């Protein structure tokens, strides 16, 4: 039940840009999404969205035949629980109110829309990530 504050990468980059352009020298700005999720909920969201992609795009079954979704199964069947590493924090959270109040930062993407974009990117850019599996 570990919890993290999740943020779409483009929103994080936008926050960095705001700090570089308008932040006060020497100040610290936390960039957050005000979007805390339990890790298991993230995994379940990813699994359900991947399953939906397989249902929408028939060619995915041919490209990823070992996926449970290729045979009409559920990706969540692959979830395995492991022992937390020693010292693993139950919750990572930050206070992003300063960047919001001083620089007007607000995430532009909902977390769910960011997940959709991310899944599509990985499905459409297999040539980029496939070689990383061989390392």
Specify the number of helices.
Answer: 6
Task: Supply the CATH class.
Answer: Alpha Beta
Count of discrete domains: 1
Poorly predicted ranges: none
Describe this structure in words.
Helix content is 46%, strand content 6%. It has one domain: UDP-galactose 4-epimerase, domain 1 (Alpha-Beta Complex), CATH 3.90.25. It has helices at 9-22, 39-56, 59-63, 97-103, 111-124, 126-129, and strands at residues 3-5, 36-38, 91-92. It is mainly alpha-helical and 135 residues long. The chain has a three-stranded mixed beta sheet with strand order 2-1-3. The radius of gyration is 18 Å and the shape is globular. The longest helix is centred in the middle third of the chain and has 18 residues, at 39-56. It has six helices and three strands, in the order βαβααβααα. It starts with a strand and ends in a 6-residue tail after the last helix.
Short structural summary:
The chain has 135 residues and is mostly helical. The protein has helices at residues 9-22, 39-56, 59-63, 97-103, 111-124, 126-129; strands at 3-5, 36-38, 91-92.
